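Supplementary notes for students who missed Thursday's class. We covered one full example, reproduced here. Read the sequence, then the structure, then the short commentary at the end.
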Amino acid sequence: MAKIKNINFNNFRNFKKFKTSFDNKLNILFGDNGSGKTNILEAISLVAKGRGIRNSILSNLIKNNEENFYIKKNLEIKKNFFDVEIFTEKKNEKLRKVIKVNNNLKKDSIDYLNQSVSFLTFTPEMERLFQSSPVSRRNFIDRLIFSGRNNYNKLINRYKKILVERITILQKDNYDIYWLNQIEKDISITGLEIYKLRNDQLKLLNRNIKKLNNAKNFVFNIDLYIKDNFYYSELNVDKYINCLVDSRYYDKINGVTKLGPHRSDIKAKINSEFDASLLSTGQQKTLVLLILLSQCFFLINDKNLTPILLFDEIASHLDSFNRQLLLDLINGFDIQFFLTGTDKDLFSFVSTNAEFYNISNI
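Structure (token representation):
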């Protein structure tokens, strides 16, 4: 069980200084647009691998005219307390994020932190998730996989790197065919692993959503699936390699690898009848909340992980059904929540005790 007890940061985004403690259950940050609510969620999320909930480049996280940001948090993990420091430093003229646990940089301490802390996020863009671009949906599913498998980002980053390397080789006048063959083998192995993990993720979501539907009688049935003309169940490494070889000329001319999980889309069929892109904004929000509720069940019951939920501007388009879904999340799990909205009154439906923070007054 992971909880963030307090946070203290300097020179982060629009804040010169910020310091507060948090409730173990429900924290609601409200205030005017631009006051910094999302920035606080972003500072919280940086304890995990990567660049936070907005995936921003590090230089954009530093307050204007400052050189570095500094964040300090006290975390409770399984009744043990940890001081976590996060800051930027330059190495070989490149900015990087550094994390210290209890004032040390030991790998085993960082690994323990990564294995113990998991985030599930909602951002305003997700209200139109199934009307946006395929990359948004891939990233959404990839973040869910990452929430239960903290080394998944290494797989994705490796895959992206070898895709670039393959195109670089192809666009040379003369290249080492042996090296190209090896790169395409690596792409095939890595690509198939990504396909499998995404497919497994969608299967478990579908399974848990069905269980939830049976218990709660939700408004519609959902079937999540991968749409990809290249991917099929019998695809193996040899077949994948052959397809890459056949597409070399096309890929060289166009500067992209046309086949693989980076070209997939994640789709949802509603009531076995129509695509989720036809849902209203409120209904798409319902769908995303159902997916996050399903992922909570998986992480807690199957992975023994208690995620921290960061829900940005969650209060808009909250009809009675979406309010009930949010309450099911809040009341159904002993986990920590951070919700943001423009007005305190937007959260009047929350029946449980909550800590409210007026960010406009900071």
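Commentary. The longest helix spans residues 177-216. Residues 205 and 295 are 7 Å apart (CA to CA). If anything here is unclear, bring it to office hours.
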